[in-house]
């Protein structure tokens, strides 16, 4: 999957597109990865959407720690923001989205009723940083492979609405937003969970970061899954995993293969459902 590499020009364009879309919708569906609810947010979204009703969807909950997901929902919710935690691949989420949208847009619905207008379907758009599940969300609703998101010239010309249900219409194009870059740890988490291209951060740095984090926060996830003893450094622990798994090249551990396979295990939640950011941090 080709990932966007963000440059200032890309960000300006994405911001401009987002501002165009925002004029057209009643509420915004922002998707974040439930495993990294902070790192997977766009640093400017709140400023861009101003007072527009805001629904945060925490996606990939099937790979996140369930107890932590509950806490995150609680922490992110407030009177302007609704939060839903979803497995976009296996859950039928339409009714929940619809319900949340109606709660968020209650003032608008009331206003239309007072004016004697029959409430029209609410309009919404999906946005979020790469890889959080935007296309999965839209495709599920559209029952088709939705259009490619990148490089669409003349946004307003190509706008299409998908009928979500009787109550909601969804913009068929997601707003692809940039993540926060100026924090090294955020960059590592994004790379670990696939939101930035693998070439941007070396696979070794990602693996070492993940192993270090797990040794500090959930060592049992490593010992149980790999059936190893934790070593004094992340590098030694990884080498132990490599030897245990027979990833050898002659007598030495094939480090490239080890690092790649370890990162893949994490992405696939092989060592368990881990949430990499704690509420109230
Ligand atoms: N396990 C799991 N995988 C998911 C979920 N939602 C999406 N995915 C997977 O995550 C990957 C990225 O999903 P996409 O829908 O392509 O994400 P996107 O936000 O459109 O990504 P870009 O187009 O790169 O910006 C795909 O492999 C999906 O199958 C979920 O809730 N659970
Ligand atoms: Mg997409």
Automatic annotation (TrEMBL):
Keywords: Cytoplasm, GTP-binding, Nucleotide-binding. GTP binds at residues 131-136, 175. It comes from the Bacteria. InterPro entries: G_CP_dom, GTP-bd, GTP-bd_ortho_bundle_sf, GTP-bd_ribosome_bgen, GTPase_MTG1, P-loop_NTPase. Its main location: cytoplasm. One of its GO terms (cellular component) is cytoplasm. Pfam families: MMR_HSR1 (PF01926). One of its GO terms (molecular function) is GTP binding. One of its GO terms (biological process) is translation. It is found in: Cytoplasm. Required for a late step of 50S ribosomal subunit assembly. Has GTPase activity. Belongs to the TRAFAC class YlqF/YawG GTPase family. MTG1 subfamily. PANTHER family: MITOCHONDRIAL RIBOSOME-ASSOCIATED GTPASE 1 (PTHR45782). This is Ribosome biogenesis GTPase A. It comes from Absicoccus porci.
